[in-house]
Design a protein that fits this description.
alpha/beta; 45% helix
Length: 174
């Protein structure tokens, strides 16, 4: 009798604490200095150990994973060693325009973490300027041909109501 393991494991890897946004829910007490981050070689060693233990899919999260120094080289080196490695990101999208073309064919999935579809609300939540949010949305439209993006904005009132209810619940708990 032979039993085959058909499970696929994913390593969810918080590759950096650095972020270019100041979301109130991530940093309720303000941004802190981040020290003791992993070096590129340490990250590569972790990826190699993960692969050797049957993990072939890595989901980079952060902070903002696109702020990790040497990220492109880390991915390139991992793929050189193990060409069937699969990479996924969750990003706020603000730096994606710097990486989009370079990651084509290397990253299988990109998840966007947008906490509101309303630019003013997102700017407020993320602690950044509305113009930065507008550029972020334009980058997403451009790189992903999101022509139907405005149809999502039509639901903005519903989303905003839900967000306000969540904030009320948090305030009641405090």
């Amino acid at each position: 009798l032979m039993i085959l393991n058909s499970f696929s494991y994913t390593l969810r890897f918080g590759i950096t604490f650095s972020c270019n946004q100041r979301c109130s829910f991530c940093n309720p007490d303000g941004m802190k200095d981040v020290t003791g981050m992993l070096e590129e070689r340490e990250i590569e060693d972790i990826l190699c150990a993960a692969y050797e233990n049957g993990i072939k899919k890595v989901h980079f999260v952060g902070g903002e994973p696109l702020m990790c120094r040497g990220l492109e080289g880390i991915i390139d080196n991992a793929i050189k060693r193990h060409e069937d490695f699969e990479f996924v990101f969750t990003t706020n999208g603000t730096k994606l325009h710097d990486y989009f073309d370079r990651f084509r064919g290397k990253v299988s999935q990109i998840n966007f973490s947008l906490h509101s579809m309303a630019p003013n609300k997102l700017a407020e939540l993320a602690g950044i300027k509305t113009s930065v949010v507008e550029q972020q949305i334009e980058n997403l439209k451009k790189h992903y041909n999101l022509h139907d993006f405005p149809s999502i904005e039509k639901r903005e009132g519903e989303i905003e109501k839900l967000q306000n209810e969540i904030f009320k619940l948090k305030e009641e708990k405090a």
